[in-house]
Design goal:
single chain; 36% helix; 2 domains; two-stranded antiparallel ribbon; alpha+beta; 7 helices; three-stranded antiparallel beta sheet; 284 residues
Length: 284
């Protein structure tokens, strides 16, 4: 692809530099799209040749390191560098990045391993033991909790949460990952099958936090920071999580009773909402 681009009149300027930084640009672009399609990052932004920050990355095949001096590919003389600090003794660069700031100054960044720093296997093992202990405690807690739930209840109602989307909230992503909700649901479902219990999963779009569990009035907005609120219809004060649990229980029992799906309630005029179940008539 690069060879074909260089032959065009519009992109002929690509011949002025080594192919190594051009190949690195394509690798970075591939990584950016991989992260985008994996829903780990946003769509890659276009970088203009005129407005974007100028930089070029050279791997070992694109530069020569000799006697503490760097010579880039397609250059006959080494770079005249004023070092900010000396490299570690015996260090050899593996990547060289050349960049230019808005003031027109050029900078060279060298990536290398420091042979004077010893590895820390003991510290790594200690950290691994801590993480293993945390994982074991989480696993033990989930087993005890799910076993108690299926033993003490004939029907367990849970909400179908989109954990992947919830992890996009950077303020809560660590706590959500640590809770292991997917593992909790998996344990609950297979243990319910063992004990002959029923697990009802309420649709993820059901507004469990907004309806009042006492009168059915539906609030327009329910920001995440609101933990306690008072219903405008009946005056009952609710804890956000307890109210949501009561609404999920009612929705799950409705599913268990008539087999209907759970749909978000629509707000009628006046702010009140009500549901009515009518037994179908049988014709003689």
């Amino acid at each position: 692809m690069l060879t074909e681009w260089k032959r065009t009149e519009e992109l002929a300027y690509l011949n002025e530099v080594s192919s190594v930084p051009l190949q690195q640009c394509l690798r970075h672009l591939q990584a950016a799209f991989t992260n985008f399609f994996g829903k780990r990052a946003r769509y890659p932004r276009f970088k203009s040749k005129k407005k974007s920050r100028k930089s070029a990355e050279y791997t070992t095949s694109g530069f020569r390191w000799r006697d503490g001096r760097v010579t880039l590919a397609k250059m006959t003389e080494p770079l005249d560098i004023r070092w900010s600090r000396p490299l570690p003794q015996g260090a050899v660069p593996s990547t060289v990045t050349v960049s230019q700031d808005t003031a027109g100054r050029w900078f060279v960044s060298l990536l290398c391993d420091d042979p004077t720093v010893a590895s820390l296997p003991a510290a790594s093992r200690a950290v691994a033991r801590v993480h293993a202990r945390i994982s074991d405690r989480r696993q033990d807690f989930l087993h005890k909790l799910t076993t108690r739930l299926v033993r003490d209840n004939q029907v367990v109602v849970i909400e179908d949460l989109t954990v992947r989307n919830m992890l996009k909230n950077h303020s809560l992503s660590r706590a959500i990952s640590d809770a292991a909700w997917s593992r909790f649901r998996g344990m609950l479902e297979y243990k319910a099958a063992w004990y002959g219990r029923q697990v009802i999963v309420v649709d993820r779009w059901f507004p469990s936090s907004k309806p009042c569990s006492a009168c059915g009035a539906l609030r327009n907005r329910m920001p995440l920071h609101v933990r306690v609120w008072t219903c405008d219809g009946c005056g009952v004060t609710h804890d956000r999580d307890v109210n949501a649990a009561n609404n999920l229980l009612a929705a799950g029992l409705a599913v268990s009773a008539c087999g209907a799906g759970v749909r978000p309630q629509r707000r009628p005029p006046g702010g009140q909402s009500a549901t009515k179940q009518e037994t179908p008539r049988r014709e003689p």
